[in-house]
Amino acid sequence: MSVLSEQTCPVVVLVSGSGSNLQAIIDSRFDAEPAIDIRAVISNVPDAYGLQRAARAGIPGIVVDHRGYADRAAFDAALMEQIDALSPRLVILAGFMRILTEDFVNHYAGRMLNIHPSLLPRYPGLHTHARAIESGDREAGATVHFVTAEVDGGPIIIQARVPVLADDTPDTLAARVLKQEHIIYPRAVRWFADNRLTIDDGKVLLDGERSPLQELISHEH
Ligand code: GRF
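# 5-O-phosphono-beta-D-ribofuranosylamine complex -> structure
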C-alpha cells in the first residue's frame, strides 16, 4: 500500500475559469515518475471551462460554489473538507479567483502552490499586464510560489520572463506570459513531487541550493 502510494503524487487542482494551466498539468502528469495523480479538479464557478477539461481527461470535477456560503470562513471550511477527503500531497491553485482565509492557507502551509501573472513582488493582485504596460516595464512574466497568508506574497519557486513589446496590449502580453506559465507550472509541480523543494528562512531551495531560479527559464522564450 505505501509502496503504491509513493508511485504517484496525489494532487487537487482548484480553478475558477479557463483552466489552461490545469491543462498543462494534465498534459504533463505522466511525463515522469511519480506521476501526478490529479484526484479532482475543484471549482467555485459551476460552469468553469476547467471542469470540462477535467471531464475530458477523466478526472472528477467538484463544484463548491462560494455563493452558497454565508461567509468566507464557511466557504473555506467546505473547500477544506472536500480537499482533505482526497488526501492530496499538494494543492494547486490554477486561476482560482478567491481570496483564502488565513486558517485555510495555514492548513496547507508548504503544500499549496499558486501561479501569478507578474514578476512578483511586482504587481500582486489584479490587472497585472495593464499595470506592467502602464509602468513602461520592458519585461513582464509569471511567478509560481508557495501560498502564504500574504496575497501573492509567498516564497517564489520559479519565474518566467518575457519582453514587453512596444505595441503590446494587456491581451497580447497576457498571451505571451500564459505560454510561459504552461512551462513553469508543470515544472514546479514536478519539483515538488520529486521532493526537490524546501523552504529555508522564507526562500525556496531547489536541491538544497538557492539557485538562480529566475534565470532558469528566462532564455527559453
Ligand atoms: C493565469 O494567468 C494565472 O497566472 C492566473 O490566472 C490565470 C489563469 O488562467 N492566476 P487559466 O485558467 O489557467 O487559463
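# post-check
The pocket of 5-O-phosphono-beta-D-ribofuranosylamine is lined by residues 15, 17-22, 94-95, 115-117, 142, 178, 181 (CB under 6 Å).
The chain has two domains: 1-108, 115-221.
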